[in-house]
């Protein structure tokens, strides 16, 4: 029997997934990798750590699935967007990768918009404004602050494409990930060489770009040995994590939307045409579906805020949960279930890493507002879940105001695993929400892309129709939706009132 392998290089870990050629998941395995924050606003990782976690997770999933390496037909890749991997001519990493949630490049963003002629002209050219998380500002920062290393740079890759290089020895990328660089003509699905030259960047720094399902290379002898696989396996283009998650959730046609709460929070709508928000509050990029697009927003700290809470304010319970072999998040959400909607007037602003959508504000900070002696830790947990979902709703409202169809909202990520958080989303979005038969997101999307590249399915839509099945539907409560609409309005006012103070804090 033939099998497909999907690999997702996330911010905190790499997940590998094996499925049969009819989409049945046999096993998954995860291996963690560290993140470094050497200064406030800085976020970096060592690309070698991605490769180590990839090798570990692939070997582990092969063991769990109990299949032979010869049965793997094709491999799909997914990965965190925007990260910059600087390589010399010998494929050696010159500097830690600068990540999607790094905020150091405000000056470079202003420079890019100035060179483009204006923010409006930049959006018209590449579909998006210049934001600190995107790739091009990082490259300009690196050139300015690390000139000796930039002089040695022969190629610049995105995270999953560095893993492709280690697997195959080939430089390549695909349209969905390239869309997040600010150096890609999203409308025409190709590198924008003219804009690169305006920024004095040599187009040869960037790899060839293909559609997401296209076979880009084959697994090399060296890569196969380290992964415990057989050489010669086809490796398809794959997709950026958001685009891959959309495929894994069957969000591949008009009217479908995905609400993904992972480390970041993403509200992702599929579109047959490249719709653009003239204000740049949400992003327009190429989807993994050939010749089609997506419009989405990304808040920088969603599930990441819950992870921060676990690490800083629930350390005892976290260690206890390991002993009891229970999920710490399940235990914390059980506390939150005791609290009524609205958390008795306690608000949480989830801007722990600055913010991207809808507020392009690297100086934004997280906070609880409204604390009283009556509030408990359970209130803080529930208000955190609500605050993150209010941020997700900000992006949903922008999409709705753009007349983007959101008939079906599918939930994925950590926010889809809890009954309480699923219901909070339905109530705040004031819309039915659904889950599907798998919660594996990007890794499953990578498997589907591998299957299309291997001609198991003729196209992505056919694949999703065959194997992605809706499982549960939750309807909103009209009373809670009315309550949350009032709370969301207040949440918005709190950010507006504090935004100038956030900037003052940054300057102290």
From TrEMBL:
EC number per UniProt: 2.7.1.17
SUPFAM superfamilies associated with the record: Actin-like ATPase domain (SSF53067)
GO BP field: D-xylose metabolic process; xylulose catabolic process
Function per UniProt: Catalyzes the phosphorylation of D-xylulose to D-xylulose 5-phosphate.
Signal peptide: none
InterPro entries with a match to the protein in the record: ATPase_NBD, Carb_kinase_FGGY, Carb_kinase_FGGY_CS, FGGY_C, FGGY_Carb_Kinase, FGGY_N, Xylulokinase
Gene3D superfamilies assigned: 3.30.420.40
Pfam families linked: FGGY_C, FGGY_N
Catalytic activity entry: D-xylulose + ATP = D-xylulose 5-phosphate + ADP + H(+)
UniProt site positions, description: Important for activity: 8
Keyword Nucleotide-binding: yes
NCBIfam families (UniProt xref): XylB
Keyword ATP-binding: yes
GO molecular function terms noted in the UniProt entry: ATP binding; D-xylulokinase activity
Protein name, UniProt field: Xylulose kinase
Originating organism: Poriferisphaera corsica
């Amino acid at each position: 029997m033939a099998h497909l392998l999907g690999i997702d290089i996330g911010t905190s870990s790499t997940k590998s997934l094996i499925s049969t050629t009819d989409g049945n998941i046999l096993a998954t395995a995860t291996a963690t990798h560290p993140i470094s924050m050497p200064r406030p606003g800085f976020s970096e990782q060592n690309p070698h750590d991605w490769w180590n976690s990839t090798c570990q997770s692939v070997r582990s999933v092969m063991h769990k699935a109990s299949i032979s390496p010869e049965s793997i037909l094709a491999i799909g890749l997914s990965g965190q967007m925007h990260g910059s991997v600087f390589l010399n001519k010998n494929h050696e990493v010159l500097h830690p990768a600068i990540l999607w949630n790094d905020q150091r490049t405000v000056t470079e963003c202003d420079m890019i918009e100035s060179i483009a002629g204006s923010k409006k002209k930049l959006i018209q050219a590449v579909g998006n404004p210049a934001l600190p998380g995107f790739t091009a500002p990082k490259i300009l920062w690196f050139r300015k602050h690390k000139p000796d290393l930039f002089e040695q740079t022969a190629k610049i890759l995105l995270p999953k494409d560095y893993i492709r290089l280690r697997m195959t020895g080939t430089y390549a990328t695909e349209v969905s990930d390239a869309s997040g660089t600010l150096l890609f003509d999203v409308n025409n699905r190709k590198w924008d060489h003219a804009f690169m030259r305006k920024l004095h960047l040599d187009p040869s720094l960037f790899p060839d770009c293909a559609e997401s399902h296209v076979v880009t290379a084959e697994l090399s002898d060296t890569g196969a040995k380290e992964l415990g696989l057989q050489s010669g396996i086809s490796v398809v283009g794959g997709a950026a994590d958001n685009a891959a998650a959309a495929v894994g959730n069957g969000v591949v046609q008009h009217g479908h939307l995905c609400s993904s709460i992972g480390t970041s929070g993403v509200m992702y709508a599929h579109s047959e045409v490249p719709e653009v928000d003239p204000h740049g509050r949400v992003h327009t990029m190429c989807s993994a579906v050939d010749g089609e697009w997506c419009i989405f927003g990304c808040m920088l700290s969603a599930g990441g805020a819950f992870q921060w809470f676990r690490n800083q304010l629930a350390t005892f319970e976290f260690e206890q949960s390991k002993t009891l072999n229970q999920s710490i998040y399940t235990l914390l959400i059980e506390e939150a279930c005791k609290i009524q909607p609205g958390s008795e007037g306690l608000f949480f602003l989830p801007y722990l890493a600055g913010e991207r959508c809808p507020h392009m504000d690297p100086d934004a900070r997280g906070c609880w507002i409204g604390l009283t002696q009556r509030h408990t830790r359970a209130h803080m947990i529930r208000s955190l879940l609500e605050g993150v979902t209010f941020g997700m709703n900000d992006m949903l409202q922008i999409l709705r105001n753009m007349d983007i169809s959101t008939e079906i909202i599918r939930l994925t990520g950590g926010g889809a695993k809890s009954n309480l958080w699923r219901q909070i989303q339905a109530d705040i979005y004031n819309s039915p929400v659904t889950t599907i038969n798998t919660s594996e997101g990007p890794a499953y999307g990578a498997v589907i892309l591998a299957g299309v590249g291997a001609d198991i399915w003729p196209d992505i839509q056919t694949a999703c129709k065959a194997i992605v099945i809706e499982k549960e539907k939750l309807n909103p409560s009209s009373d809670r939706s009315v309550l949350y609409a009032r709370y969301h309005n207040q949440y918005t006012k709190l950010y507006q009132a504090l935004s100038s103070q956030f900037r003052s804090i940054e300057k102290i």
